[in-house]
């Protein structure tokens, strides 16, 4: 059973987030919505693609959420397994297409799960494990090496959905090891839990950069580029761009409506003296409540004139 698939959209209320303006200097943590792909309490819908090397089970030894996690247990065998590839790719996966309509991930920002590893090796190889997302059509998939997985600890895996080749068409999720990364006879077990899709509940600022970090004192325009995450393309996001020496003293302010990404220009009414300046971008909702805020900086120097 897949609890919550396509049905439960739970809100994760992070304690530091507030729709109201936070105190100056306090970081806001954006609120995320989660859709559970699999809580791994029952793994009967996961297939074992390599029965010689692999055993899969719902296991209680290491659990991140609930009472069980998917245990993907492998004994590396360089002499047998797949007929033509004895040094192959032991794997386990799950077909999403058979389980309902949840193959369109375009409404989400991240694929996330937690992974714990154990092995009889002193440590894991550089690429201990990979995850692949399979799309319709022959051999269409997007694969990610999970280099962050470590022996003896839980690691949080976060993959931006925008990196998938066909995020509107995800038919299968599959985890695999590559036996060529291991020695014959190595044992390596992974516990995988809390596999979810997440999205920002509202737009946040992913990137904010000045087009130039160094300006001359005779210049009158400051340009910044920005990119939003969690922008669903429905309507522009109100924003305020402010330039000043510090958070308390704005030299100039401009209001804007932001798309998913773009460039903003702030025309100075009077020249800036030499020094370091901060640029702050604040996103608000329609009522003016702060959704997110980010800052960057640039320097003004006396020009060659
Ligand atoms: Ca679980
Ligand atoms: Ca093998």
What does this structure look like?
A hairpin with a 5-residue loop joins strand 19 and strand 20. By secondary structure, the chain is mostly beta strands. The chain has no helices and 20 strands. It has two domains: 9-200, Jelly Rolls (Sandwich); 204-301, Immunoglobulin-like. Strands 1, 2, 4, 5, 7, 10 and 12 form a seven-stranded antiparallel beta sheet that branches. The chain has a five-stranded antiparallel beta sheet with strand order 3-6-11-8-9, with no helix packed on it. It binds calcium ion (CA) (2 copies). The site of one calcium ion has 7 residues, from loops.
**What is the CATH C-level name of the largest domain?**
Mainly Beta
CATH level 4 superfamily of the largest domain: Galactose-binding lectin
Helix content: under 10%
| Run of helices and strands | EEEEEEEEEEEEEEEEEEEE
Q: Describe the biggest sheet?
A: 7 strands, antiparallel
Instruction: Assign the CATH architecture of the largest domain.
Output: Sandwich
Mean pLDDT: 88
Number of domains: 2
Counting DSSP E segments of at least 2 residues, the number of strands comes to 20
The chain-level structural class is mainly beta
Give the CA-based shape. elongated
Radius of gyration: 24 Å
Helical element count? 0
Uncertain residue ranges = 1-27
Small-molecule binders: calcium ion
